[in-house]
Amino acid sequence: xxxxxxxxxxxxxxxxxxxxxxxxxxxxxxxxxxxxxxxxxxxxxxxxxxxxxxxxxxxxxxxxxxxxxxxxxxxxxxxxxxxxxxxxxxxxxxxxxxxxxxxxxxxxxxxxxxxxxxxxxxxxxxxxxxxxxxxxxxxxxxxxxxxxxxxxxxxxxxxxxxxxxxxxxxxxxxxxxxxxxxxxxxxxxxxxxxxxxxxxxxxxxxxxxxxxxxxxxxxxxxxxxxxxxxxxxxxxxxxxxxxxxxxxxxxxxxxxxxxxxxxxxxxxxxxxxxxxxxxxxxx
Length: 283
Known about the structure:
Helix content is 75%, strand content 0%. By secondary structure, the protein is an all-alpha fold. Helix 4 packs antiparallel against helix 8 (207-222). The N and C termini lie far apart (49 Å). The mean pLDDT is 86.
């Protein structure tokens, strides 16, 4: 057995720690750069408009039909009903489409500007480039959730402020339950992000990943009543919303689909990363 001196062990650990610190700094700088590029893209406006679209519709509908608001705002289940109604269109349409479009548009920035070769000439490893872009997309989805939740609150407060005889809702708001549901819906969108990221990095024409995402979403919607519909990873936000629906519009599996969503996410990320780092043409 070879004897290693304490000095050698300390030196080796110091070099390892220093290398990890450099990698962390590079990742932070790459993340900041990607975030700045994101601000000039269509994806930022997509996140903003998509998050506030449903709450804006709710506000307009309530202002038009304001005669029934006094009774509505006095009910015990006001916040739960508002939450449920707001998430219907979000879980079935806007969340999957936001994941598809935002991921594709962020990746398209480099293709649009013919800048992939310049990106790869930077003193950054392919791993840093791959995961910094992915991190920006995930942060955008977090931003999407935050803005949507803010929109839900505003859809309750704005009619109260604009219509004099409408009381402020005194019903208990189950914030802990809402937070858990937000986390579950976020997990539901992860495999969509990963699949779209994989495709967007492989195809220069952004219509390919967007077209694939839209067609797969349509297929997932059509397969809700199929007992094996859960195999389509674009269906998980729909299944989460419809699992308590008494109308039985979807066949929800007995097991927790969120673990399946995480499994798909990891699989697509591993495959996408492998294809990215081994890609011969870096542009």
